[in-house]
Design brief:
It is a single chain. This protein is α/β, with parallel strands linked by helices and 890 residues long. It is built from 28 helices and 34 strands. The strands form eight sheets. Strands 5-4-16-15-14-6-7 form a seven-stranded mixed sheet, sandwiched between helices. Strands 21-25-22-24-23-26 form a six-stranded mixed β-barrel. Strands 28-29-27-32-31-30 form a six-stranded antiparallel sheet, covered by helices on one side. Strand 6, helix 3 and strand 7 (128-130) form a beta-alpha-beta unit. The N and C termini lie far apart (62 Å).
């Protein structure tokens, strides 16, 4: 199915991380291209490679375009009636606590608001939680403990204006690339700025670091307690601020006194001289920002880690001023918006909680006497309740928990026993839709209309620039239709998302009077047209701040009843999961540069699959010397096992393993990393520990490995123990491996693909491998390369042959060997995804005299668009120059 052509550019907001970049989607032949919106305050025209490739993810392949019951298409009327009837039956028989909603930071604020209102205000249960529980719940609790409100105090401008920036628990260069590029530019403009990266791994972010603290995994709280003690001992505390505007300082400082330089260095596994350099940089800084993300939050003690960071800022007065503040950056485009409307089970709405006053206030505003009286189940608890049969009906919206939740196989087994699983999504085949009884087609990015809030509290518009495909509908409409069928028609009579936004804004200001941080009542009277043209604005937006608010707490007033901030006494503790004889290594999970969450969107882009094509396991070579690059490695924990591509790396610390979080069952046979993670959570936030799971590594004995290219899309992989899908235009591309050799390669291929009527050109390489090209009427239909070790065909040459077949016998023989013709040099591993520039031409350009990123950009264009590849370009330059220097010295 094709979309009608567009006629005009559309300004919208990116679908990916919490940076919240403005995007201009510009029509071109056959679709759209994405450009950065130069007027948007988050990115000023910059885009990362994922944002630049947004236009490549808009195709309708794999979309859910019609409601389905038990995988059979039905009308919307029947689907909605069935959802309402079956939900009502559960409520009547088991009570409202047997129903749960599970949302996503991919939902727009208007969608989120309706979902939360229906569950907590009218069904009358608190069981509305979100996948944001997995990324920033600890930050929420940390802010509330310190400030009395979930209020991020900073703006991106503060990062650029700081004397010193701490990046902790964040590979910013890959996870939040535009923020990283802004910071890199600020460092270039002001070389005196100090950037400190705190991370067990040496990541791409370290490229701009003045100091990298490769601390022991999980020891972050001790590092910040030690820093607090060091600032106290060196007279760097803001005693006047502490006395006038805080509580708890004495207890917090007393708890920190035990963290001497020697103890902190030993506990964190850091050299004393590095720790002293860190303290010196902190003490010399008049303006300090700490940017923290999943490495802090995704912890069994994530809240304490957040408060250890905030304590340091409060004690030194680095808050409420330009270039200062503790800055939690979110992982999803609307994680913040979900917090605003109450998308977390421990929130009610508009940052209100479950006090009698708040419950009464929300009930009076919603005109409901059935508002839930208590918090609901958070994500991990919710799906455990599904498994145990306490939750009889769950509605999952815009997320893929069978890939993203810890102990994912157990979650899958639990959902299989649930009497009613409803999924609203844009993709028909995901790990989660496979478990659904009812699937409802939702609008996707580019089709839906609403608002999102980024990590700096900036509300932006996501605008529809594409028509609704098939029968897909907005999430808020689907929810409202079900609410009406449940008997709540008057409260859910919305006709336009602007109505929902106005109600949401009005609730934020209802009986507020400055008592709650979140207040956008200044936007409650927007007309539909004003809402449609709304410019980015940071909350609060009210009578006191009609233009929005870039920085909070400039008046040193906080949201605890006494107006003071609170320091929290912290007792650092290492994760409960410790390595042991069976599982001696610690696995850390995280993002890669060009993929997003569980790949249901980015996996559609061939360009984004070029940089890292397969799920991998990164480890220090000395931890597994028997495993070589290119091997397949079995990663096992007490909860399951994965099969991944081995990537030994000296930059990985000893004792640690890194595995990406993205690959799902549609893209790889056995790579769902969260199936290995134990569901251990922070007791205060409910956020899972995703960074510290004991595992073992072993070389998997592959008898052969292969690359397979088949004309067409949605091709089923052959039956093998290992396979991974690499998106390509018009071609299905697999990497494959198995532990036993086929007796007959041709017969083995015929089991999966009809090659009888094709002209087959083969090369039997003795015991070392087999190659095959299959042709029909001169067009290449299938290419297969199997070897004992991983084959390395020139992928670009093979793909090009599907479009432009080689004509001469010599060219065909070269293709059979996996090579291009003599006149075409291979590209090697793709480094710059924006321009498909590979490692081989980059290396050759360095050898020919391109000794800077700028020179490489002038020659090859790499690094000149989004800049995400610049750290890797610098690494290649340094490696080649070292090689050249060593050669000269000999």
């Amino acid at each position: 199915m094709k979309r009608p052509p567009a006629t005009a550019p559309a300004l919208t907001t990116c679908a990916y991380c919490g940076v919240g970049c403005g995007v201009s989607m510009e029509p071109q032949t056959g679709g759209f291209s994405a450009r950065g919106d130069k007027t948007h305050p988050a990115n000023h025209g910059r885009l990362c490679v994922k944002g630049s490739a947004l236009g490549e993810t808009l195709g309708l392949q794999g979309r859910l375009l019609q409601p389905e019951i038990d995988r059979q298409p039905v009308s919307w009327t029947r689907a909605l009636d069935t959802v309402a009837q079956r939900l009502q039956a559960v409520i009547d028989e088991q009570g409202p606590q047997a129903v749960a909603f599970y949302g996503s930071g991919q939902l727009l604020t208007e969608d989120y608001y309706v979902a939360n209102k229906l569950m907590k205000g009218f069904i009358g249960a608190g069981n509305m939680d979100t996948n944001s529980r997995l990324c920033m719940a600890s930050a929420v609790v940390g802010y509330k403990r310190a400030f009395g409100a979930d209020a991020v105090p900073c703006s991106y401008q503060d990062l650029e204006r700081a004397d010193c920036v701490l990046l902790t628990g964040s590979n910013t260069a890959w996870a939040h690339p535009v923020v990283y590029q802004r910071l890199a530019q600020a460092k270039k403009d002001r070389p005196e700025m100090r950037i400190i990266v705190i991370d067990p791994r040496q990541t791409a972010t370290c490229d701009i670091a003045d100091l990298h603290l490769a601390l022991r995994p999980g020891s972050d709280a001790a590092l910040f307690c030690g820093a607090l003690n060091a600032m106290a001992e060196s007279g760097k505390l803001d005693t006047a601020f502490l006395q006038r505007h805080t509580q708890g300082a004495e207890d917090a400082l007393r708890a920190a006194r035990d963290w001497t330089v020697a103890r902190t260095a030993a506990y964190c596994g850091l050299p004393v001289d590095q720790l002293l350099a860190f303290y010196q940089m902190l003490g010399d800084s008049q303006r300090l920002v700490t940017l923290y993300s999943m490495g802090i939050n995704q912890s069994g003690s994530g809240v304490d880690k957040c408060n250890a960071i905030i304590n340091l800022h409060l004690a030194t007065g680095h808050i409420g001023r330009e270039g200062c503040g503790p800055f939690s950056i979110t992982g999803q485009p609307n994680a913040m918006g979900g917090r605003e409307v109450g998308g977390l089970a421990n929130q009610l709405a508009s940052h209100m909680g479950f006090t009698p006053e708040d419950i009464s206030r929300v009930g009076r505003f919603w005109l409901s006497d059935n508002v839930t009286q208590s918090a609901g189940l958070n994500a991990v608890e919710l799906f455990r309740a599904v498994e145990e049969g306490r939750i009889k009906a769950v509605w999952i919206m815009g997320t893929n928990p069978l890939v993203s939740l810890p102990d994912a196989d157990r979650v899958r087994a639990g959902l299989a026993r649930c009497p009613l699983v409803i999924v609203s999504d844009i993709i028909r085949d995901t790990d989660t839709t496979r478990a659904a009884h009812i699937c409802l087609p939702a609008l996707g990015w580019g089709e839906k209309n609403g608002t999102v809030t980024n990590s700096e509290r900036c509300i932006s518009r996501q605008r529809a620039f594409l028509p609704a495909p098939g029968e897909a509908k907005p999430d808020w409409w689907i929810l409202s239709q079900v609410a009406q069928r449940l008997g709540f028609a008057e409260a859910f009579s919305y006709q336009h998302p602007a109505e929902i936004f106005r109600e949401h804004a009005a609730l934020s200001g209802f009986e507020n009077h400055g008592s709650r941080a979140f207040d956008i009542s200044g936007l409650a009277q927007l007309s539909d047209e004003e809402w449609d043209t709304l410019q980015p604005v940071q909350w609060p937006v009210n009578a006191a701040n009609p233009q929005g608010t870039a920085r909070l707490f400039t008046d040193n007033r906080f949201f605890h009843p006494d107006g003071k901030a609170k320091l929290i006494a912290i007792t650092p503790r290492l994760p409960v999961n410790s390595p042991n004889a069976a599982y001696p290594l610690i696995m850390n999970t995280g993002r890669v540069r060009d993929q997003w969450h569980t790949m249901t969107r980015t996996g559609k882009s061939a360009r984004l699959m070029q940089h890292i094509s397969e799920p991998f396991c990164q480890f220090h070579p000395d931890d597994a010397p028997q495993i070589q690059p290119g091997d397949l490695v079995r990663v096992a924990s007490s909860h399951g096992w994965l099969l991944l591509r081995a990537q030994p790396d000296n930059l990985q610390p000893r004792g640690s393993v890194f595995v990406p979080m993205h690959w799902n069952s549609q893209f790889s046979q056995q790579a769902r990393v969260d199936a290995l993670i134990e569901a251990h959570v922070d007791p205060l936030s409910g956020q899972p520990e995703s960074k510290h799971m004991p595992v073992s590594l072993s070389r998997w004995p592959a008898a052969w490995q292969a690359e397979l290219f088949v004309r067409g899309e949605n091709i089923t992989p052959p039956v093998t123990t290992y396979w991974s899908l690499i998106t390509q235009p018009g071609v299905t591309h697999f990497t494959l491996a198995d532990s036993s050799l086929p007796a007959d390669w041709m017969a083995w291929l015929k089991e999966s693909y009809a090659t009888d009527n094709l002209l087959c050109q083969t090369a039997q390489l003795g015991d070392d491998g087999f190659s095959l090209l299959a042709w029909s009427d001169g067009a290449l239909q299938l290419a297969f390369y199997a070897r004992r070790r991983p084959p390395s065909p020139d992928r670009q040459a093979v793909l090009a042959a599907f479009t432009t077949p080689p004509h001469t016998a010599q060219q065909r023989l070269a293709l059979l060997a996996g090579r291009a013709g003599r006149d075409k040099a291979p590209a090697g591993a793709i480094i710059c995804s924006c321009y498909s520039v590979g490692e081989i031409p980059i290396t050759e350009a360095v050898r020919q005299g391109c000794h800077s990123v700028q020179q490489l950009g002038e020659k090859l264009k790499c690094g000149t668009n989004c800049g995400s590849c610049i750290p890797e370009l610098k690494k290649i330059i340094a490696g080649q120059l070292a090689t050249l220097t060593a050669g000269d010295s000999q």
